Amino acid sequence: MPIDESLQSQIETYLSHLNGLIRRGCRVRDALAKDSSSSSAVAATRAWQEDCGVTINQLSGGSKAHWLARSFSEAFMMRSKDGRAIEGAAPTEIVTRLIDVLEQAVASISQMDKVSVVSGSSSGSGSPSVSPEVPPPHRFDFVHNPELRPIVEQAYTDSRRAIEQADYDTAMRTSCGILEAIVTDALEHKGLNALAASGAPAGKIVDWTFQTRLTVAEHAGLIRSGCARLPAIARTYREQPDGNSERNAAVSERDARLTGQVLHVVMRDLDPGR
Question: How many CA atoms lie within 13 A of 83 on its CB side?
């Protein structure tokens, strides 16, 4: 059945609010990445998280068992390889996870005209309760090659899981692979002729090194200077074979998380509306 105008108005209001929270979250994450000890960044993060909590509580109808409320709570936890909660996640990782939760809420609310909608809540707040059927997130709609989108989407999920399981080598490699794939997609869409003015070398883009692709993309204005923060070990991720035990041990948690942060910055560069 079609949505009535009052519910449609609520949906539009929540979508606008959620998108605003997502934009704030991106700014908060950038501030923490620059200086996680900054008192202003910490205060802004705390205020943003509180606003997220209020919104999630409204959308979940005040139920802690709701998938959205559970996702919000789990964003603050790290898990061991057997799935047990062991400690709090790093601040930037928490912000990234909460942004993902907000994006899932946007995806679910956007589909309310196609799925069952419960109007109101047990708390009597009158807020719409989002459907438990969660559409898959679409973080990579900006990628020009449609066949590549589901691949990098799955890789993104795998990289997050590897971080949670403390498999930092896999997490860093996967984030680098996503980064290389989406930058290459942007370069190919731009075209070699247009890239020539940006100092692009001769030959096919797929034959360029990882570092060359990043450099050309920056010079061409496709991305900004965020890749300067990539750890040295990430820049050479393709030069070492998988299963190298010495390399695996050399990849630290900081390396993996910093690579993931750079990936998010580049995703936003390539998708300004993110």
Answer: 0
